[in-house]
Amino acid sequence: MPATIVCRNPADAREVIATYTAHGPADVAAMCARAASAQPHWGGLPGPRRGELLHCAADLLRRRGRQLAQRIVAEEGKLLADASGEVERAAAVLHFHAGEAERLGGELADAAQAGTLAFTRRRALGVVGLITPWNFPIAIPAWKLAPALAAGNAVVIKPSSAAPGAVLELVEVLHEAGVPADVVQVALGGAEVGLALADDPHARALSFTGSTDVGHQLARRVSGRVRFQGELGGNNPLVVLADADPVRAVELACEGAFAAAGQKCTATRRLIIERPLYETVLAAFAARARELVLGAGATEGAQVPPLIDSGALEGVLDAVAQARDCGAEVLSGGARADGELRHGSFLAPTVLADVRAGMRVLDEEVFGPVCAVQSARDLDEAIVLANAVPFGLSASICTNDLHRAFEFVARSEAGMVHVNRPTPGGDPHMPFGGLKDSSASGWREQGAEAVRFFTEQQTVYLHHGGAR
C-alpha cells in the first residue's frame, strides 16, 4: 500500500490539512526517464517562446494569489500577509527568468583565423533535480524552477513533505501555462525520494536548499558525477554600532529575528551591540519582543506565527534550555505557549543575554524565534564576533557612519551583507547565496547567475569564407 504524507495545521496539530500519496524510488526513476524524453523538444524551443510560457505562468500565479496564500498559511503556518508576499515573490521570479530566457546568449569575437567568427552559447544540461524546503514553500521552488526551465531543462522537483501543497499548485500553473507535463514533475516523499533523485542516471544536476548536514551529505554523494548546488544554513549577525539610531536598531532586530517565527535561513540569530548602546538596545529589544503577539497565520493582529511542527519546537526549546543551563539569561520568551495556543507549535520571541561560546544558540543554526545578544568593545571586536561561526550566509550592520559600514562590508565573511536593513531580504534580479558552511558549492541562486548553474557553455568557430 502506498505511503501517505499527512500535513497538520502548525497552529493546531489536531487539524489535518491535507493527505498526499508519497512516491517511491521506482516512481522517481520513471519521472526522470520521462523528463529525459521530453527535454529535447523543450530545450529546442526558442528561448523567447519558453519565456512567453513563464510570463503566462506568472500571470496565472498572481490570479491565484489569495487561494495560494491561504494554502500556504494552512500547511506551513506563516502569516497571511507573508504568504501573500511570497506568492508575489514567486510570480516576480517567474517574470524575471522569462526575460532571461529571451537573453540567453554568449560572447562574440573574431577568431585568430581569417574569415572565422568565434562565439559562445549556453545550452541546457538536460534533466535536473530540485529539492526544496518547507519554510518558503513556493518562493524557493520558483527560484529554482524558473531558471532551470528558462534555460531549457526538464525538471523533477521534490518539495518538503511538511508543506508540499504550494509546489503542486505551482507546477499545475506551469502546466496550465503550456509547459509540457513531463518537462516539470513533482516527486513527493521523504529522504529515500531525494536520494533516488540524486542517484538517477538521467540527472545532470541537483539543486538543494535545506540543512547544512544534509547538504554536505548530498554533495559528497553526487561528487564528480552530478553538478551540485547547495544553499544551506545560516547563523546571521546584526551589528549595531554606537552611532546608530537605537529605535531603528530594535526595529531591524525584531524584524530579522522574529518575522516568520525566525524560520528563515537569513533570519537574525545574533545581535552584536557596541558597548555604549548595549544596555539601551538590549532592554528595548527584549521589551519589544515581549509585546509581539503570537497567533495563527490567518488571525488578525498576529505578529509571530507557529513553528512548522512540534518536533521543530522541541529542538528550539532544547537549544534555549542548553543556553540557560550554561549561564545565559532569558529576557523574553523561552517557553512553549499555553492557553488557547497550546495545541500549536508556538514559541514566544526569545531574547538571550550573557551568551558565550559553547552555547548552541551561538554555534549552530537554531531555527526559530530566538536571538542571542552579545556586546562588543568596538567595530573590530564586533566583526570578529560576527565572523566567529562556521556559517556565512547573511550579515547586517546598523550605523550612520558610511566609512565603518564599508569596513564591515569588506571584512564580513557573509555572502550577502546589508547596511541599515534586516538580515533577511533580497531581490529576484540579484544573486543569493552564502560563504563557508552556508553553501556546499560556489553556485549562486537568483539573478542572472542562476541560469549559469543550469547550463553549460559551448564555444563555436564559424568559418564564413575568405583566406584560410
Overview of this protein structure:
This protein is α/β, with parallel strands linked by helices. The chain has 2 domains: 4-232, Aldehyde Dehydrogenase, Chain A, domain 1; 236-419, Aldehyde Dehydrogenase, Chain A, domain 2 (3-Layer(aba) Sandwich). 41% of the residues lie in helices and 22% in strands. It has 15 helices and 19 strands. It has helices at residues 25-44, 47-63, 65-76, 80-103, 139-150, 165-177, 191-199, 212-222, 246-258, 275-291, 310-325, 360-363, 379-387, 402-411, 449-453, and strands at residues 4-9, 12-21, 108-110, 116-124, 127-131, 154-158, 184-186, 203-209, 227-231, 236-240, 268-274, 329-332, 350-353, 370-376, 391-392, 394-398, 416-419, 435-436, 455-463. A 7-stranded mixed β-sheet has the order 12-13-14-11-10-16-17, with helices on both faces. A 5-stranded parallel β-sheet has the order 7-6-5-8-9, with helices on both faces. A 3-stranded antiparallel β-sheet has the order 3-4-19. Helix 5 links the parallel strand 5 (127-131) and strand 6 (154-158). Helix 1 crosses helix 7, helix 3 crosses helix 4 (80-103) and helix 4 (80-103) runs parallel beside helix 5. The N and C termini lie far apart (69 Å). The model has no long low-confidence stretch (mean pLDDT 96).
